[in-house]
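User: Reviewer 2 asked us to show a designed sequence for the structure in our supplementary figure. I'm pasting the structure tokens here. Could you produce the per-position amino acids so we can include them in the response letter?
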């Protein structure tokens, strides 16, 4: 889920005449206002909520995650579901929620602070027409085609990327710390998978287009030489339906993120929220919660479809092959920072190998930058 930084400006800046550098006196108070980002998913898909709190403008970070809250989704006619903590301020509820009723979010920070959203009527996104890509000299751009309807006009688009990658070197052996010797490796560690959520904030208003059609919507760009397209790449695009108030909120957030610190940019502190503190309704709450049924579509891109594509990975620029003599096996390999690759071949009479080739762990064990677990959706 996308992370945004929020700053509450506590003073009114007045500019008269010529624009000159002005450093206002800012009150350093940490109000700890709650920041809520999330979407309650109806039908297939996970409900995802992120909680954080504001800090002072002088802090190095503008918000801190809230990981100790109790979060629930409540149905207006039936049902109450616990949204489970995942750490770092993220909460998730897996499984389908029943359609045909309104929902609200409930957050307990402690015994004295209970937050609720309004009762929210679910919105339903039309099916995504297609996801496609174009190759250029600068890289690859992912696009989406879709549409709105009379019931769903505004949409927030997100993208989850996954790609398969390989280390520069293959480690066929590992160090056996129990017997202090090199043994064949049981599991290959040179191919892994990595994922990330695109940080692009994409909003559309279908009413502004002919026949409510959304054409050639840019979702993300993959720069030339990116590792993402070195072997195989997949992206799932999600189209979330939101109402007019949520669209206004995210539009202001987007403009502030594109114009950081601009004196004339509207700030999130003045944007309406659909959440409130039950115990203290006058306390500001930042954020917007949506409810609805998203549409998803996934595509895969093979390297052969975008060639020529020469991968450049900064982490691998330090990679080099080392030659390790038998007398230094334990010294070099036992700490795990260097991995044995393969035996150095004999060049003279038969006998034990003259040593082993080795490499830094990051250069031969893909788990340093990804996972061996193939995603359930992955197609080889």
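Assistant: Here is a per-position design you can include in the supplement:
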């Amino acid at each position: 889920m996308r992370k945004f930084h929020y700053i509450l400006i506590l003073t009114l800046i007045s500019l008269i005449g010529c624009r000159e550098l002005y450093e206002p006196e800012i009150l350093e108070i940490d109000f700890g206002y709650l920041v809520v980002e999330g979407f309650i998913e109806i039908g297939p898909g996970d409900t995802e909520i992120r909680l954080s709190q504001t800090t002072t403008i002088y802090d190095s970070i503008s918000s801190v995650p809230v990981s100790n809250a109790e979060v629930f989704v409540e149905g207006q006619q039936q049902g109450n579901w616990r949204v489970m903590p995942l750490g770092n301020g993220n909460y998730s509820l897996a499984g389908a929620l029943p359609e045909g009723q309104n929902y609200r979010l409930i957050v307990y920070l402690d015994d004295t602070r209970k937050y609720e959203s309004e009762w929210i009527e679910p919105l339903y996104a039309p099916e995504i027409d297609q996801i496609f890509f174009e190759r250029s000299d600068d890289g690859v751009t992912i696009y989406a085609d879709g549409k709105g309807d009379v019931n769903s006009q505004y949409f927030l688009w997100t993208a989850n990327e996954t790609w398969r990658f390989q280390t520069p070197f293959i480690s066929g052996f590992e160090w056996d710390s129990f017997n202090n010797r090199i043994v064949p490796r049981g599991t290959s560690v040179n191919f892994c998978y990595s994922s990330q959520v695109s940080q692009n904030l994409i909003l559309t208003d279908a009413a502004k287009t002919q026949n409510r059609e959304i054409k050639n919507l840019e979702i993300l760009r993959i720069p030339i030489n990116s590792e993402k397209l070195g072997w195989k790449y997949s992206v799932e695009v999600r189209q979330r339906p939101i109402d007019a108030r949520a669209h206004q909120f995210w539009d202001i957030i987007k403009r502030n993120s594109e114009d950081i610190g601009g004196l004339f940019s509207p700030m999130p502190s003045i944007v309406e929220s659909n959440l409130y503190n039950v115990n203290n309704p006058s306390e500001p709450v930042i954020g917007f919660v949506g409810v609805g049924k998203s549409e998803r579509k996934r595509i895969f891109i093979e390297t052969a479809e975008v060639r020529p594509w020469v991968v450049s990975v900064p982490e691998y620029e330090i990679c080099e092959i080392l030659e390790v003599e038998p007398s230094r096996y334990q010294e070099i390999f036992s700490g795990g920072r260097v991995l044995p690759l393969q035996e150095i071949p004999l060049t003279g009479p038969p006998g034990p190998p003259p040593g082993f080739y080795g490499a830094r762990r990051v250069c031969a064990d893909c788990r340093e930058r990804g996972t061996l677990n193939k995603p359930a959706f992955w197609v080889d």
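For the response letter, you might also mention the following. Residues 244-258 form the longest helix (15 residues). Residues 168-187+311-368 form one domain.
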